[in-house]
Amino acid sequence: MEKLKQTVVKMKLWLGSLSFKTGMIVLLCCIPFYIISFAQMLLPLSVATKGVLWTIFFGLAKACQWGGITILGAEGMRRLHSRFRRKSDK
After folding, report:
1. Where are the alpha helices (DSSP H) in the chain?
2. Are the C-beta atoms of 51 and 59 separated by less than 8 Å?
3. Residue 70: how many CB atoms within 10 A of its CB?
4. pTM assigned to the model
């Protein structure tokens, strides 16, 4: 269990060392995965296949979302919020 905690801490430090631009790219990658996870329900596939595809693509979307947030960190999230606030004030 201790080895798993060390691995998670190392991964979090590595992700946190990446740039703001990389964080934004990873965060924006979750959008197509969300769209695919729900759009594939319209395809003529079996229910089991749809469930597997939904689980895979929704999981990828969540992984990109949380990975992007981890890369951005608290300071990057403040920066992102301030950009949206400036655009809405105009």
Report:
1. 2-16, 20-28, 30-39, 47-89
2. no
3. 19
4. 0.72
Structure tokens belonging to residue 52: 């597997």
Task: Of 37, 33, 64, 60, give the one whose Cα is nearest residue 50.
Answer: 37
Sign of torsion over alpha carbons 21, 27, 30, 32: negative
Interval 11-68: pLDDT, tens: 888 877 888 888 889 899 999 999 999 999 899 999 999 999 999 999 999 999 998 8
CB 10: neighbour CB atoms within 10 A? 10
Instruction: Record the tokens describing residue 83, joined without a space.
Output: 């950009």
Which residues have a Cβ under 8 Å from the Cβ of 23 and sit 6 or more positions away? 68, 69, 71, 72, 73, 76
Instruction: Give the total residue count for the chain.
Output: 90
